[in-house]
C-alpha cells in the first residue's frame, strides 16, 4: 500500500514539475517575444530619430541662407527638398518660405504702403495715430536696411528657439481683428499656448507668451517700421506695465490698458531726457507731473 502511495506521489510530482517547466518555457517565450518587439520598436524609433535629426540638420543649413540674405536661394532649396504641402505646413517649412518671400519683397522695395499697413494691422492705435505725423528724417532713419537687419536678428532668434525639443509646432490662425498669424511655438489643443513666435501678414512680429491664440503674459511686438513694444499683455491687448519704443529714440514707460496708455507713465525724448510725465488716459496726458 505504501509502495503504491509513493508511486502516485512521484507521478504527481513528476507531472507537476513537467507542467511547471512547460509554463516557465511558455512564459519565457512570451517574454522573449515581448523583448524582441521592444527591441524592434527601439530600432524603429532610433531610425526615425536619425532621419529627423538628418532632416533638421538639412533644414538648418537652408536656414543659414536666410540669415545670409540669400532669400531666393532659400525658397528654391525649401521647395526642392520639401515638395509636399502638408509636410511643409507640419514641419514649419511653409513659415520659412513665407518669411523668405516677404524679405525678398522688402529688399526689392515692395514694402506695404502706409494705407495697407494701417488697414491690415489695426493692433496699435499709437502707430496709426502717428503715421501721418512721422517726419521724413525718421522714415529715412528707419530705412530698408534697418528693417532687414532687424528681421535677420529675428530669424536667428527663431532658429535658436526651434532647436528646443518642446518648440517648433507650426499653426496659422486669424485673430478677432482679422490679422493672420503664422505661429511657431508651443501648442496645446491646436492653439498657441505657452511661448511662441508669430509673423503677421503685415510683416509685424510678436514673440512671447500666448493663451488660446491670444497674446497673454510677457512679450515683445515689433512693427515693420521699427516701432517696438515690450511688456505685459492681457487677452491680446497691451495691459499692465510696458515700454513702447519709436525708431527715432523716443519711448514711453508706464501703465497700459486696452492697448492704450492708461495710468502713470513717462515719455522720454531721443536723448533719454524726460519730455513729460504724469497720468494718461486713452493715450492722452490728462494730469501732468511737473517735477
UniProtKB/TrEMBL annotation:
Pfam families linked to this entry: MORN
Enzyme class: transferase
Swiss-Prot/TrEMBL keywords: Kinase, Membrane, Repeat, Transferase, Transmembrane, Transmembrane helix
Protein EC: 2.7.1.68
Membrane-spanning intervals of the chain: 12-30
GO cellular component, one term: cytosol
Tree of life domain: Bacteria
GO MF annotation, one: 1-phosphatidylinositol-4-phosphate 5-kinase activity
Family annotation (PANTHER family): RADIAL SPOKE HEAD 1 HOMOLOG
Protein name: 1-phosphatidylinositol-4-phosphate 5-kinase
